[in-house]
Write a structure and sequence with these properties.
By secondary structure, this protein is mostly helical. The chain has five helices and two strands; from the N terminus they run αααββαα. α1 packs across α3 and α2 packs across α3.
Length: 125
């Protein structure tokens, strides 16, 4: 598993790790019940504190994306498709709120935004 972290990013390192693993799970790069690297191994690979990796794993476990079995390691939890869909809907909502703010400031009508959205969908089908 390749995780690239940026020390110059405003996003905390634990969150970068959490996001990378989350995306790998959602994209099926990490499969259900697949074992994740140990906290120490990943920390060594990334040259960061194991506490940072532990925090990322704890957040993923609290969200239901991984499960940790004491003495065995951490594994990708069975996918909860409803949870993943809800997460993606929240991301879309956040982006649409940004679109709304830009259109409001720029005096772009709802109809114009809807037309752009429809064109994008049609081009990508």
């Amino acid at each position: 598993m390749d995780i690239i972290i940026s020390n110059s990013s405003d996003t905390p390192i634990f969150k970068q790790i959490e996001d990378a693993i989350y995306e790998a799970i959602c994209n099926d790069d990490l499969k259900e019940n697949e074992m994740l690297p140990s906290v120490r191994a990943l920390a060594n690979d990334l040259k960061i504190s194991f506490l940072t990796v532990k925090r990322a794993y704890d957040e993923l476990e609290a969200s239901g994306f991984i499960k940790t079995i004491p003495g065995k390691g951490s594994f990708v939890a069975p996918k909860n498709l409803d949870l993943i869909k809800e997460e993606k809907l929240k991301q879309i909502q956040d982006l649409l709120e940004q679109v709304y703010q830009i259109s409001k400031v720029s005096n772009i009508s709802t109809k114009e935004v809807q037309e752009l959205f429809q064109i994008i969908f049609e081009e990508n089908e």
